[in-house]
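Quick question, first post here. What does this chain look like in 3D?
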Amino acid sequence: MDEEEIIQRVPSRDSIGKQAAHVPEIDYAAEKKLVRKLDLRIIPLFMLLYLFSFLDRVNIGNARLYGLEEDLGLEENQYQIAVSILFVTYLLSEVPSNLVLKKFTPSRWISFIATSWGIIATLTGITQNYAGLIVCRLLLGLVEGGLFPGATVYLTLFYTKRELALRVGYLFISAAIAGAVGGLLAYGIGFMDGVAGQSGWRWILIIEGLPSVVVGIATWFLLADDPETAFYLSSEEKHLIKIRRARQLGQTASAQEFHKADVYAAFKDWKVYAFCVGQFGTDTMLYGYSTFLPTIIKGLGTWTTAETQALTIPCYTLGALSYVLMARLSDIQQRRGLYTVIFGTISVIGYGILVSDASTGVHYLGCFLVAMGLYVTTGLPLAWLANNQPRYGKRTTATGLQITVGNISGIMAPFLYPDSQGPRFISGHAVTLAMVGMANVIFAFMSWYLSRQNDRRKRGEEDAKFANMAEDEIAELGDKSPRFLYTI
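> Answer (accepted):
Ran it through. Tokens below.
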């Protein structure tokens, strides 16, 4: 057991030994084997779900290159509206979806929304006009909105705070794969233009939507609702998960139940809103870059559609690798803010290059720099906030709010890159630069503030506030407990 775990469990510096005795012992070899099993049973399924979810959400960008606007008669900014309107229902569904996750059970609920978005995404390929496209995008956002916040909360049921960032990171790797593979798929499927009298963009949407239906149905049978009902875990492994939970301050049995008071606590915590605003800034980059990278790269030179798609792949690959490395390092060191700000700064430099009057090669370098920070700056804060909410009700609400506010940027982002601003899109790059810069300032402040709070708690400066409370009452305070140390 490391020093941080001991410090978190003591009422003051003078009683370390007494409290440490109550920390459950653990078989570290068995724990390592357990985590490997969880990774094999949980992560691949969620990676597939998020990969197809992200692909179905942003493949409209590739469909655009194969005649979507011309066939549907889109005019002026109607394409941008079609892209952004998905996020209206997407963000409205995120918090409610998290709140009903336990009621309907994760396996049933996630299976339902995945199968639904697969059907809707597939049928988008047969729409005949602008109105039909808008309806499909609204419905797609409604059912897709619950996946990412639900997956984030679900992972906290099985993994500890020292394991979470990397596992959330696997979802962002799926997004990067969707970006890279989506271009290749679109290029290959584009050759079906004219098959059965249908345009290439229709086949792109139809074929890329069908896998979601298959994975959604499979989720009903493959996803366990919680550790206690996980069919692939032995009784010893289920007990080990309980021990792992007990070793984290605030993770009491009661804290893992849904309490309305915890929901209200999330809405009243200013720190949650700070993370929400920061997430809005980084998500502006995520959605603008993910949706319009093919358009941005095409404007850098005289590329064919195939060349444009190919040039997006190295950018997404670099983004995925950067996140895997930083998520792992962040988990080990339990430092989220430092790496969020460093890689946010790298993205800011990338946008600065894109805004500058430079050569095509230098602008393409800017795309790489943006990609380096893209998933790190977007993903680490999601694990960061979840780490600091040991009580389930507050954690699920706070995570839902963070992702909801962040995704509001998805409504704005498409309008940062109108055709009239091409091929350089200077205004869009400049606004995104400013939004990521704002997020950097917020996350740097939160890292400093939480570190300062930890120092106060280590010195026992907040103990007096809870002098009249019993130890079991203090254990139920969650992140308000003077024993709890924030991840910074």
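The chain has 21 helices and no strands.
The chain has a mean pLDDT of 88.
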